[in-house]
Amino acid sequence: MVINSKNDGLYIPFVSISSNLLIMSFFEFMTILAFLYFSKQKNIDYAIIEVGIGGLLDVTNVIKNPVLTITASISLDHQNVLGETIEEIAIQKLGILKEKVPHIALLQEELESIFIEEAKKKNVPLYFVAKGDIKDLKLSLEATEFKFLGRRYKVRLLGEHQAYNASLAILGTKVLEDKKLIFLDYDKVCRGLEKTYWPGRLEIISKNPLMLVDGAHNIGGIESLVNFLKAVKDDKKVIVYFAVSSNKAKDQMIFKLDEVADEIVFSEFHYKRSDKAINLIDYSHIKNKRIASEDEIELKIINNSDPNSLIIFTGSLYYVSEVIKKLKA
User: Fold this and answer.
1) Is the pTM of this model over 0.70?
2) Which one in 88, 100, 186, 224 has a CA-CA gap of 20 to 30 Å to 290?
3) Which stretches of the chain are DSSP H helices?
4) Domains of the chain, with CATH numbers?
């Protein structure tokens, strides 16, 4: 849902805060704003709340009695808060588990025992989606098609990982149906999945030249992006524009991008977290690499001399949002 500030009648009172009190972060403020907004809406059956960093310390974890919790794939991110290893991060993420509340998770074999152990502590019914549960997977630049639990689905969102994400949602709705909280209409589920749109996530913003944006900003996201590019690129020349926040695992992200890129162009975005392009270029070991000129995106002089190129902008949601604004202007 998009909040229309002119028509929705949402007013947030601003009050002075004592200097000795903790100032809210941007995400904390936006979460409170969302809670205030939706608390005033009528006829809301269920609220789907997406976490920030996720887990025990996440601001959304103030919700004490959810009907269901879900975790998607877990990878290294926010290590300064969540922990340095994937196992430490998993334990933090599972801080969203609530007593006897069902939990849906993507099965990662190296973390399976942690999920089972943490679920037992709170008597949580645990349901896994395993990669082997996804059948007849078809990837393209138009859609992602797959079969799950004996039924075929199609989503507009691109990439193998979106088949897993959709399957988590499907299994979640089936768990709610088993609890007699909802009734599923298969045709409506299919239409809903096919209409789902997520700006900035493997989004095609131009077909000639072929340009995509993807807000992948951690190693897990970059791995999913690289796997998708390998699956659909055919004989296309892959040109990657990359900018990243300075606190991310940029060396690992660039190392992975080297696997699929024919050329990497390092860039920056206008936010204090942005790393300098000059700090990034030496992490890449491919021959064709350079630093973007200051205004090549603003002036839309993206390298499209090769009509058979596939151009992808990635590394940061901040960067992707700037690119979309500039190229769609």
Assistant:
1) yes
2) 224
3) 26-39, 79-82, 86-93, 112-121, 160-178, 186-195, 219-232, 250-257, 277-280, 317-328
4) 43-195 (3.40.1190.10), 203-328 (3.90.190.20)
